[in-house]
Amino acid sequence: MEKLLAQKKLTSRWYERFPRALPVGIFGLTMAVTVISVAAIETAEDRRQTATTAQLAQSVASGLERRSNANAAYLRSSAALFATQQMVEAPLFRTFIRQLHLDGRYVGSDGIGWAMKVNSADVPTVEAIMRNGGVSDFAIRPQPGAERPFVVPVMYLEPNTLRNRRAIGFDMFSETVRRAAMKSAERAGQPTASGAVVLEQEGHEARQPGFLVYMPVYTLNSDPSPRALRGYVYSPYNAQRFLESSIDANHLGGAGVRLFDEDASGKRLMAEVAPVGASGRIIRQALDIAGHRFILEIEAPTTPMLSIMSVMSLLFGLLVATLLLVLARLLTQQAVEDRIALAWFEQQSSIRNSLTRELNHRVKNTLANVLSIISLTRRRATSLPEFADSLEMRIRALSATHDLLTQSDWGTTPVMAVVRAELAPYAQDAQRHLVISGPDVELAPNDALSLGLAIHELATNAAKYGALSVETGQVSVTWDMAGENLARIEWVERGGPAIDTTVRRKRGFGTELVEKIVAHELRNPVDLKFEAEGVRCSLLIPVRRRGDFAIRQGRG
């Protein structure tokens, strides 16, 4: 395995260096295809909607023309009949019109009327005849001026409703739009529609625009002389009612319909069926009603931003793109993790020898410490039991610090933990007075071992001869940072037995251990003083970064 790892060159591929690029690229490509598909579907849907609207426009235009053609046929029949009569009287007119419309409908118009051509000089006579015939308030309006040779007032209008009676007596030749249509009908001899007007029978109601269709009635001559115009059979149309009666709103599907009159001045809206929302897609259709040009506009109803098929395609594409994104992400992540695992195994293989050397080094250091402790203890012991007891306590102190290092995986160890571990036997006694305080400082393993030995020796000495040997004694262990990479630890005893500073003291094992072994391991001198108030010891310990001593690194 080690040979294979050594032979294999661990060069990362591009998708391992950029693990998100491949999933995002696949997701973007899939969504781009989906968006193009949705755009194609929407384009086809727009074309279908346009074709449907055009078909609807043709259908509505055909319906309006059928209505107007049916009414034109009635007007031709009426004109043919009235041309044979010497006088178009009210009973004859009403009877004939009622026979034409047995069902009471007027194919979208407001009815059929008779407008007779009357010379201006005969206006009083005609008014008198009409009043005697039952129309008591008949009067031609507006009264013709001297420059007008004749008038064309409305004589009858069926059905005989209150609304239609408002138009009786109105001179249609007095109004410009109506007069132009009447002259055009006289020249063509065919039903002719006027432009947009407000019907006289609208009264004071909402004066909606409308139009009229005129059919001229001539006097029948047996000779080839020109025929004389007797009047007009006509139909008035309220444009809104004409439009609504000619279409089936249920078949519009929410589309809007507008009818415009188009003349030299432009377009004028005459009638409208509002769409369900304004989509802006409009189809225009030219419409010929009795020889007059109208414009029909069909506006498609608003539709959702996306059709059902587009929404389904978009959701499906999003689902597929997401699945591919997740799959590609998992595969690239697995490739990255495999590469990391191979690198880690390679690293572990390369540092195995270093770990072995480090273990040997630490074991040698520990054994050297043990040999030093044994040597010093043997020289200072006066009996075998004293030697065994002293050696056991010092080995236990070394073991306690080793336990702390094991718990931290031989990483950094807090100063607080080392001090508390060594002073634990004395902290359990309520009569002991211990003060332990300082900032959070982490020590390297070997430095923690040295500090543990020093604290143990100082605590043992205090328990035998110093502040920990009496109830009034107090031991204070404090520390702070003496520099960026250096910690100062202060051991101060107070309240113990007084120390005679005038007598030269014999150097004991603890003193030599602290001043020699600990100082050597910490690479800094130890300041140990025996003051009258008690022992004071100051240690300087290096604070090293983890990388300076740690060999084993975690994966990842």
UniProtKB/TrEMBL annotation:
Q: What is its EC number?
A: 2.7.13.3
Is Transmembrane there in the keyword field? yes
Q: InterPro entries from the xrefs?
A: CHASE_dom (IPR006189), CHASE_sf (IPR042240), HATPase_C_sf (IPR036890), Sig_transdc_His_kinase_HWE (IPR011102)
Q: Which residues cross the membrane?
A: 21-41, 305-331
> Per the record, GO CC terms?
membrane
Superkingdom to which the source organism belongs: Bacteria
Which molecular-function annotations from GO does this UniProt entry contain? ATP binding; protein histidine kinase activity
Q: Name one Pfam family in it.
A: HWE_HK
Question: Is Kinase found in the keyword set?
Answer: yes
Q: Which residues form a coiled coil?
A: none
The entry's localization annotation reads:
Membrane
Biological-process GO terms, alphabetical = signal transduction
Q: Which UniProt keywords apply?
A: ATP-binding, Kinase, Membrane, Nucleotide-binding, Phosphoprotein, Transferase, Transmembrane, Transmembrane helix
Recorded catalytic reaction(s): these are: ATP + protein L-histidine = ADP + protein N-phospho-L-histidine
**Domain CHASE span(s) in chain numbering:** 84-247
Name assigned to this protein: histidine kinase
